[in-house]
Design brief:
Blueprint lengths: L13 E15 L5 E9 L2 E7 L6 H4 L5 E11 L2 E11 L19 H13 L4 H13 L1 H4 L15 H19 L5 H10 L4 H4 E3 L5 E4 L1 H5 L1 H17 L3 H13 L15 H24 L5 E6 L5 E5 L5
Parallel strand pairs: 3-5
Antiparallel strand pairs: 1-2, 1-4, 2-3, 4-5, 6-7, 8-9
Amino acid sequence: MEFKKINEFQSGERIDGFFLIKSVDLKTSSNSKKYLDFTLGDNTGEINAKLWELAEGDESRYEDNMLIKVRGSVSTWMNSLQLKIEKLRETVPSDDVNIDDFVQVAPLEPDFMYAEIFKYIDNMKNKDIKNIASILFKENHDKLMHYPAAKKNHHAVKSGLLYHILSMLRAGEKLSELYTFINKDLLYAGIMLHDMSKLEEMDASELGIVSEYTIEGQLLGHITQGIKRLELVAEKVGADKEIVMLLQHMILSHHYEPEYGSPVKPMFAEAELLHHLDIIDARMYDMKRVADETEKGSFSEKVYSLENRRIYKPTLEQ
């Protein structure tokens, strides 16, 4: 059997290959039988997998971020592909596989993205906004190199948070040429800081894989953590209180609706634009991801992050 990538899987075929364990949980079926529920990944995507027949020691043998070799069959369950594992083992040196080759990564190098983002900071005219953005980016440099923007869905890849920020900055720069009344320093800082506290909300490995949400992240969430972190940095630099309030409002309102975590809706233009830039970039990322996995002239499976819509991939060339 040939080694196929996850984005090449088709229902009904048997596969044999190496995969990264993104998560693994011991569960109990309706007939009280224990099984292992995996999320397996490679550099093209991920798939849910089940090991129904457990051998002695299987319950504790496998863990997150481990490379394994798997043999199994692909089927469809609830409109999504699923892998039934028939045989698996940990990799050994003679397999000659590198874990970095199985990790999904942002399309741009993290050092390049970080430097590009800092160009926006260096060009800021407002001293307080510039100082706040600069300090927060410098303090979080190491985590930003590998952190995703989410555990699942949009930008859930290594260095995904940097890619999300840079994409939004580039889009915001274009829109500010049209909406010339926008304060670009305020907009750019809001873009940079709106998701910054996902670095505290999630616990991610250097592979960019989120194993779980932190206790503080679950109790407070990145929006509350973000305005708290901003307050501390603002006090350190003696920033103007109105500027701090405006930036905090942008963080608070960027999800727009209370059910998504925002206690207030945007109340000035830069905050409104931030919300829409966030939505556009997240959805365009997922649209591209799904389209890349879909054959021309056909529909995808339902996509949870796109409100359970099926996405059509036209035959029309770009």
